[in-house]
Amino acid sequence: MRKFAFGRAWRGAVCLTGMLALGGCGLFSHDDGRYDPAPLTEYKAGMSVRQVWSTSIGSGSGLGFVPTVLGNAVYAATPDGSVGKFDLQSGRPIWKSQAGVKLTAGAGSDGTTTAVASPDGDVVAFDDSGKVKWKVRATSDVNIPPVVGYGIVVVRSGDYRIQAFDANNGERLWSVQRPGPALALRSTAQMVLAEGLVITGLPGGKMLAIASDSGNVQWEGTVATPRGASDLERLTDVVGAPRIAGNLLCAVAYQGRIVCFDVTAGGRPIWAKDFSSVSGMTLDQRFAYSADQNSVVNAFALDNGGNVWKQAALKNRQLTAPALLGGALAVGDLDGYVHFLSRSDGSLMARLSVGGGAIVSPPQTTSQGVLVQTGNGNLVLIGTN
C-alpha cells in the first residue's frame, strides 16, 4: 500500500510539473500558448555580472541536489554518485569521491561529515578527506538533501519520516513521523538546522521544529491547509527551505500561502498571504521574495506581508528559488540562464548563461558571489564586475 501511494505521488507530481510548465497532462483541451515560457527580452542593464569559475562535480542534476557552503568550502554531489569538496574562491577540487550508488539527494555537510542519499534510502557519510565513514539505510527513499550539524545527520524520507543518525558512526538516534497525503509534489525542499532545532516543511502544508538532541517536536505550524474535493486539488506542500530573519521564520507552499511566524511569540503567524510556489523563497531585512507557480516573481514586505512588486517578464520559465547578490536577486531558469532582478522594484538588471540545461538547484548566496549548480553537474560561481 505504501509503495503504491508513493508511485501515485510520483505520477501526480510529474503530471503537475508538466501542467504548470506547459498546460499538459490532458487537463487542457488545446494549447493556446499561455503556458509557453516567456521569450527573453531586452532590458536596460543595471549591473554587470561575470562567471568567476566553473568546475565539474560529476554528471546530471536533480531536485534533491543543493550545494552546502561553509566558509571557503563548497560540498556538492550529482546523481551519478559523485561527491566533492571545492574551494569557493577558485573552484579547485579539494577532494572528490564516489558514493558507490546512484544518488537522489546531497550534499549536506558540517565541514567534518558530508552526507548524501540514494533512491533506495541509503545514506552515505564521508569524512573530510573524502573517505566513506559509514553507510546506513533510511526507512524509505530520500529525495531532499540531508542536513548535518550538532553531531547528527538528518534525512527526511518518502514515508514522511524525519530520521537522525549519529554523525560519527551512523547509529540511528531518533525518528519523527507525521501522516502524509496521498499525493506529494516533486519539488525542491530543504531542511534547516538552527538554534539546536531541525526545521522542516512537510507535504500537507505543515512545518515542524524538532529538538536535534532528542527528536522531541518543539513546535508545529501550518503554512497551508489542503482544500478541495480531489487529492490533486488538496495537494499543498511546503517547498524550498524555511527562512529565518531575526525573530521571523518564513515559508511558502504550493497551492497554499506564504507566511511568516514570530518565533519569540510561540510561533504565532504575524502575516500570511494566499500564494502558490513550486520553488521556494528567500528573505532580506525588508522583503520576502518568491516566484509563484507561473514564475512571476513577487516581493512581500517582511513586516506585514504587503505585496511590494511583481515581475512577470520571466513567466513560465520554471524559475528556481531566488538568491541574493548585492542589490539583486538571482534566479535560474529552464534554459540555463541566471537572471538578476532589482530587490527594490523587480526590474531586470542582468542575465548570464551558465549552460548545462535547466537549472533546478536553487542558487546559493556566498561571500564570493552566487553559486549555481547547473543541469549537467557543474558548479559555477557568478560575481559582479
TrEMBL record:
It comes from the Bacteria. This is Outer membrane protein assembly factor BamB. Coiled coil: none annotated. GO terms for cellular component: cell outer membrane. Part of the outer membrane protein assembly complex, which is involved in assembly and insertion of beta-barrel proteins into the outer membrane. Belongs to the BamB family. Part of the Bam complex. SMART domains: PQQ. Its main location: membrane. Keywords: Cell outer membrane, Lipoprotein, Membrane, Palmitate, Signal. It is a lipid-anchor. One of its GO terms (biological process) is protein insertion into membrane. Residues 80-311 form the Pyrrolo-quinoline quinone repeat domain. The gene is bamB. It is found in: Cell outer membrane. HAMAP family: OM_assembly_BamB.
